[in-house]
Amino acid sequence: MKHEWHQRVAHYIEYVLNVAILIIGIIIFGFLIREIISLAQLLTVANIRTHFTEITEVTLAVFLFFEFMSLVREYFVKDAHISMESFLYIGVTALIRAILVYHDQTNKTLLLAIAIFFLVMALTFYRYFRSLIKTKSN
To answer: What is the largest CA-CA distance in the chain?
Structure first.
């Protein structure tokens, strides 16, 4: 009897989580569309050179929203499982965007570059050990 009660609670929480993730996905999609429209407006400006930094920032924001949308998709496709690799990719993209914003501050740029290096190393180790574990399990 207790087991059935716990199962019902677990199914209810899973349902609430799925609805919340779906709502977040819809909101992220709205922001993605807004950034794409903003990028299109920036690209139609006659003098693109003056808006180069702004264009690159919006472009990287679009990539971030694409990555977040792929996280939401991955959540539903892989039955509520999101790979650590996806989070590392989002971190690298976000830090690259931050470098574009703080490119005139040497210390911040250096720290962000070091953080990107550590994330790339973490991604490399993650892939290496994941493939190592897969070969041992087969």
So the answer is: 71
